[in-house]
Amino acid sequence: MNKFVKRIAQLPLPVKQWGLFAAWVGGLVLAGVLLWGLTGSLRSRIVLVSVNRVLDRSGIPYRLEGPISALGKPGRAMQLGSWFTLRNAGGRAVVFPLMAGPNTASALALFSPEGKLESLIPLGTNAVQLFERFPAAVIQLYARRAEEANSLLGALPEGGGT
User: Fold this and answer.
1) In 77-138, where do the E strands start and end?
2) CB 110, CB 93: distance < 8 Å
3) Does the structure show a pLDDT above 60 at 162?
């Protein structure tokens, strides 16, 4: 160990500075990855509660029940957004972002137990405004992406999706 420390001490100062900087950045990235990975259930719970609150205020009868785990699922299906089972409806739903230039808002796609897209619901005032500005082709594109991702997920598990 002593030889290693002596070799490090003999390195030029810029090399040592870049090494410390790289270690610092690597530590930040590692901390971020751990934080993101370990807070997944908390983030899903926050999305579930906030979407149910929006649905309740809008008078829409659907409610999200629980998250659908991404483990063992095709990667492309999970790229769309966060998937949830529907309470009392037997289907599933996905919360995903709508993007138009610098504007971003959330939307909800509801699927029947048979896997058919029932509706796309903008979540919030900003999302409603984006929906109104989008051409019909863009909304159809989001609908097709949601249907494709739903078909990749396959059948719902017996006890829901948690």
Assistant:
1) 82-86, 92-100, 103-111, 117-123
2) yes
3) no
